[in-house]
Amino acid sequence: MLPGCSAEQPVRCSVVGYHGGREARARGDDDDHGERLRHVSCARVRWLATILVIVGGVAHGVAAAPGDARVAPPGATSRPSPDEDPGSTSPAIVDSLGSDDVRQVERAVAAITQLPAGEANPDVLFAAGRACEDKLLDPGQAVAIYERIVAEHPGARVATAAAHRVAVLRALVGPHGDGAAYAAELAQLIARADRLPAAEVLRRAEHLAAAAWPGAPAAALWLADWLRRSGQLPEAQAHYAAVAARWPESSEAHAALRGGAGCALEVHAWSLAEALANRLPVVTAAELRVRDDLLAAAARGRRHDRWYLAAWLAIVGAFAALLGSLAEAVLRGPAGSRWRALRPPMEVVFLAPVAGVLLGVAFTAHRAIAPAVATIAGGGLALAWLSGAALEQLRTGGRGRRLRSIAHVLACLAGVAGISYVALTHGGLLDMLIETVRFGPES
Predict the structure, then answer these.
(1) What residues contact 257, with CB distance under 8 A and at least 6 apart?
(2) Assign residue 149 a region: left if phi > 0, alpha if psi is -120 to 50, beta otherwise?
(3) No. of H helices and E strands in the chain?
(4) Where along the chain do its domains lie?
């Protein structure tokens, strides 16, 4: 996570327009834990432009309210307020900032930045700065616009946000703008990473991470996050460790620890996840929550692993017990009745239509749970077949079935429970089921 981006709510920035993963959202797989470029859409900027025009009109109307009206003498001209949009920043020019045409955006930004000092509306300047970041991918020009807002309009409502953007971008381009070219290259790489070959992304990112400029930690962290999103978890873990080792006191190192912990959770390396989470600095309440959530996720994952192993043991034990029971019943039964074990018993005849209905509903209305339903239904039918066939052989041979029936019921329950747990775990539905049971279907 880059400078200025908290663990609880990352700041949207084109140069650092990605999330550090899911671990900051208390899921550890995450939660900084899941990091894409977030461009400002045309509709969003046009909405901003409309709001700016309305606010400007309302402010002008309030200034000219009847109670404060002054009648100007004939031939006198009005002098515009410094905070009032001059004619050159018309709604059409502001609206152009949201265009998909880069040249049109460049012309709009140039028209706004060429206004004399103190004559440009600070909101319009801020929109131009965002366009430089998100559309033109030019953090150097964006920081110059934000610094102008802070200098010319220190009391404006966007001055605080502009100052924050200055701090974030200065950490990339440097105090004198020496890293502006590298920052622009990183912004372009983030914007186009999904359309470039993986080898080229890796080469360019490693070049930026190795270069001597203030944004090198940000480039190295972005590369680690990109590798994690691409599914290259061992490589991502190695890059997270390199960031934490190379810049141990930076905010990127802390984000790398969070990302490494989340990466470890994804590969079920619970001990590594706990070790990385315990290395996180805890200064604020948000950082304490992040660390506790990572540790809780590791403990939960370790618990799930134990239950997963127990589920497989229950499945193997149930099938082994029922197969043994069937084999014993067939071997000790009448010779002419052994082939009857291949016929579906009454249990299967009863359960098969029910399972078919459940499968039909799952595949037509809830496809996300359909594989789990199919696994549970198939496993349950197989257990019922073995149990019913064994009991039928006992009945044919005139042998007692009461104790064997009770044992079969227990074996089937254990087997179905194990199959259900494995199916839900493989389908990623276990946590969803737990949350539904705890907080209701609307959670």
Answers:
(1) 240, 244, 276, 277, 279, 280
(2) alpha
(3) 17, 0
(4) 306-439
| pTM metric for this prediction | 0.66
- What average pLDDT does the structure give for the chain? 81
| Residues 175-187 pLDDT 10s | 888 899 999 999 9
Q: Residue 32's closest CA among 210, 245, 427, 297?
A: 297
What is the per-residue pLDDT for 165?
95
Alpha-carbon distances of 80 from 66, 73, 153, 184, 193, rounded to whole Å: 18, 17, 16, 37, 46
> Can you tell me the distance from the alpha carbon of 339 to that of 332, in angstroms, rounded to the nearest whole number?
13
In this prediction, residue 395 carries a pLDDT of 84
Q: pLDDT for 23-76, tens place per residue?
A: 333 334 444 434 433 443 444 434 444 444 344 443 334 333 433 333 333 333
Angle, helices 122-134 vs 42-63, to 10°: value is 170
Computed on alpha carbons and rounded to an integer, the radius of gyration of the chain in Å comes to 33
Inter-axis angle of helices 102-113 and 122-134, nearest 10: 150
CA 67 – CA 84 distance, rounded (Å): 20
Helical H runs in 65-138?
A: 91-96, 102-113, 122-134
Q: Give the separation between CA 252 and CA 219, rounded to whole angstroms.
A: 10
Question: What span, in angstroms and rounded, lies between the C-alpha atoms of 159 and 146?
Answer: 8
10 pLDDT exceeds 70?
Answer: no
d(CA 4, CA 171): 9
DSSP structural state of residue 118: T
- To the nearest whole percent, how much of the chain has pLDDT over 90? 58
CA distance 221 to 60: 47
Query: Residue 418: which of 348, 319, 349, 350 has the closest Cα?
Result: 319
Amino acid at 426: H
